[in-house]
Amino acid sequence: MVRIRAIAAGINTKIGNHMFRSTGITTYLKNGGTIENAAAMASHASTRTTQ
């Protein structure tokens, strides 16, 4: 759905729901969040997946 809306708006780039997820986690970590909490928010079984 995000990609369809982006194309309709004339945004010619790869975009999707996962981009919002990864951007949110990255922003959280850059603002002092812990890797353990980030892994939990992303439902990752291991912090290695989050890194």
From TrEMBL:
Listed Gene3D superfamilies: Intergrase catalytic core
GO MF, any single term: DNA binding
GO biological process, one term: DNA integration
Domain of life: Bacteria
Keywords: DNA recombination
Protein name as it appears in the record: Site-specific recombinase XerC
Taxonomic source organism: Caballeronia sordidicola
